[in-house]
Give the backbone structure.
Amino acid sequence: MPMASNTYLSAPLKSTPLDHKLTKIKPILDLRVLRLQINRTPTTFLGCFSLGVGFRQLNPPRTRKKVKSAAAVSMFAENPVAVDILATSLSGVIALSILRLWEETAKRGLVDQKLNRKLVHVSIGLVFMLCWPLFSSDHRGALLAASIPGTNIIKMLLLGLGIWKDDATVKSMSRFGDYRELLKGPLYYAAAITLACAIYWRTSPIAIALICNLCAGDGFADIVGRRFGSWKIPYNRNKSFAGSIAMATTGFIASVGYMHYYSLFGYIDESWEMILGFLVVSLATTLVESHPLSTELDDNLTVPLTSILVGTLVF
């Protein structure tokens, strides 16, 4: 029995096709295990060299810096106060840049003064609305956003009262270059946008209708009316059918466009009922804007008030 046992143990083992396959696969498995170990532990070039392996470093410092940067951005994004501060700064820079652009065009006489004033009127509010998704959902975000046009209220008061001199701003925002004009239309304009931010904000179709009809509607009404407004409205010879049609059309299209824009962020649920409401508000503001009383008071006052009143009824 012992001899048989020794003979059995000393006999060479026969290799099978499966053994040959495992022999070929084993180096690959060892390589994958080694790669896994290297990935799990931070290594340096000297550490890899001491292992006698010609691998390049799989976890370089640059990657770790990117991870740290991503973590910092993630922590920053989770802090709504920091988000609102950054959004306020960025939105303020954008608004100021647009104002500076139109001030320069007015100063250099590149654009007719009346057209330049209306381009300011159209662009400021609409571009500012594009920045609203940058802010957090807290009411603090709405108030900080409102602080941007709110500072412009102070500026209009200082310029309109003659306390602060800024000829470029006066020229870009007034009809006849009189600084006292800033106490009317431009002041109402800034106050209306501030009100839309602080009270209604981006979840309300009233805010959308107010700013879109004030900026796009009233702005293009003047631009188109001056160029194609030969056919006057019977009850107000200072207004034209072309201007009124342009106001209703652009105010409505801009409202629907921003409705869709904010729905992409989940602030508003777009619907045909809301679109119909925007149409009603645009038609109402156009009718009020064409009335002689609106000309006597100021379009920048009557259009926002009409948007709020009618918007409250239809939305």
In short: The two ends are 101 Å apart (CA to CA). The mean pLDDT is 81.
